[in-house]
Amino acid sequence: MEKQHNRGQDGAGIATVKLDTEPGVPFMHRLRSSAPQAIGELFGKIREEIQEIEKYQPEITKYPGLMKGHNRFLGELLMGHLRYATQGKNNVELCHPFVRYNTIPARNLAMAGNFNLVNADELFKFSKAEPGEVHKNSDLAAMLETVHHFLTKEDEERRNGLDVKRILQQSFSMFDGGYHACGLIGTGDAFVIRDAHGIRPSYYYVNDDVIVAASERAAIRTTFNVGENEVLELMPGHALIVKNNGEYKIEQILEPKERKACSFERIYFSRGNDEKIYKERTSLGRNLSGTVLKAIDNDLRNTIFSFIPNTAEVAFYGLLKGLEDYLNKIKVERILSWGENFDEEKLNEMVNRRIRIDKIAIKDVKMRTFITEDSSRNEMVQHVYDITYGTVRPGIDSLVVIDDSIVRGTTLKESIIKMLDRLGPKKIIVVSSAPQIRYPDCYGIDMSKMGDFVAFQAAIALLKDHGKEHILQEAYGLCKELDRTNTLHAQNVVKHVYKPFTPAQISAKIAEILTPAGIGAEVEVIYQSIESLHEACPNNLGDWYFTGDYPTPGGNRVVNKAFMNFMEGKNERGY
Length: 575
Ligand SMILES: O=P(O)(O)OC[C@H]1O[C@H](OP(=O)(O)OP(=O)(O)O)[C@H](O)[C@@H]1O
Ligand SMILES: NC(=O)CC[C@H](N)C(=O)O
Ligand SMILES: [Mg+2]
What we know:
Elements: E1 11-17, E2 28-33, H1 38-56, H2 64-70, E3 77-83, E4 98-100, E5 109-117, H3 120-127, H4 139-157, H5 164-172, E6 177-185, E7 190-194, E8 203-206, E9 211-214, H6 217-224, E10 232-233, E11 238-242, E12 248-252, H7 263-269, H8 275-287, H9 289-295, E13 303-307, H10 313-338, H11 344-351, E14 356-357, E15 361-363, H12 374-384, E16 385-387, E17 398-403, H13 410-421, E18 427-432, H14 454-465, H15 470-484, H16 495-498, H17 503-514, E19 522-527, H18 530-536, H19 544-547, H20 553-567
Parallel strand pairs: 13-14, 13-17, 17-18, 18-19
Antiparallel strand pairs: 1-2, 1-3, 4-5, 5-6, 6-7, 7-11, 8-9, 8-10, 11-12, 15-16
Helix pairs in contact: 3-4, 4-5, 8-10, 12-13, 14-17, 15-20
Bound molecules: 1-O-pyrophosphono-5-O-phosphono-alpha-D-ribofuranose, glutamine and magnesium ion.
């Protein structure tokens, strides 16, 4: 859990199942916290429980079997989760895992996951669950109720043991979304499952002692000290099903569909210490070096390169490598052109030419602002960054800073650009290792409101500039019509809003929007192209937030809904 802070900082939760308990002894427990240091609080509580027993049995920690009887969270099946809300509020009641308790062991179910479903309402209707005020906006509640419905049915009908595969086939075929989800059943059986497009990442590792699964490979590698190839990818539409006797199987649950693994995982969301992700982020940066050189007219003498911490650091190394390649090529060309005509000093000057890099921006807290809830994000962005003084020659140097994404533009507008401008650069070029984020995500990354996207704001502004605002009304009319005929899923209407403009026009407008009043430097924004993103991350071609092409029917519905919300002035998610 400590190695997956990147996936959620709203809160944390754990659940345990004990095997082979005597009848009447509780076997499933759950604990959650939404405290700022949630993991610390959870395990602090467990430590307190143990210390309480130690008062009477000082030797107890030497006897794990005995401890299991006295401590709620000692068990054989363990589940942990860090929440990043993509639906509902940020309160502790919505932290994972969710649990359904029952007197019959087979009908106890704990679930958690890294996911987002877009058809929760439909699922509540189906399972006849009547969620309360807090849970009605929870896709985990909808997921749990549906799986529990089929679990109960299976328990009623079963002859020899629970058929977990069948339960998963019945329930997960109803879910529209992206997920890596897991469940513990009161019988001591467990499962981990991944969506049919492989949208969310999912990995597992098995040895003689443990069977473990997580959203990221690096977390498993670090915890169990194992090699890259020992941790396997759970393939799309498949589940890892573990029986209470320790036997396990990888089963196909759903027909795998076209692989559309989320590219934003690679660009930003996952931790960058994964072997493959590190390489991909480096390539993303390197791919941008040509465009950047053009933007600075190859003037490396008067340009300083840097990055916006934290996650963009790896892409920065890639950009640097690309620039170094260029510079070295130039050095060789020059030296060759001299023939015999050089001395030590001249040669020294040439080989010592460097790309000028500096640590310009500093992030004081290791919190991710992007995944912080709306109400506290702006303030956090304003206080979290700082700059290094004395790095830029005012009025002479230009600054190039790379970030991994510009989504709402809050980080740049509310903080970074104003601060960088204090250093007096001639020009500030912001480079994004992700392409323009134009459409909502609905599969587990919380970018769901059209009006929030700076790319969308730019398109609207351009429509105004060009006297084409009627396109908005026409698109809205089309959405209403699709809604009336129940066919909102049939096409992505928002594409019409972007269509009249080239990516370069949108980027230029974004730069304008992101330039706060009273700034001395000229601001330019450069984005990764979709083609070079695909080239850098060839296994993660999921790109709906950049292209508007959604892999599931719920996607178009969400983007059209998000657009209608925008037009109607509603500040709500599109799902
Ligand atoms: O355009 P915006 O909506 O402001 O969001 C984009 C910013 O958010 C992310 O950083 P974040 O602070 O979440 O995390 P990091 O420190 O891991 O880079 C990302 O790296 C960008 O800097
Ligand atoms: N990624 C997560 O942490 C869980 C997302 C889930 N949709 C929720 O909002 O609870
Ligand atoms: Mg960042």
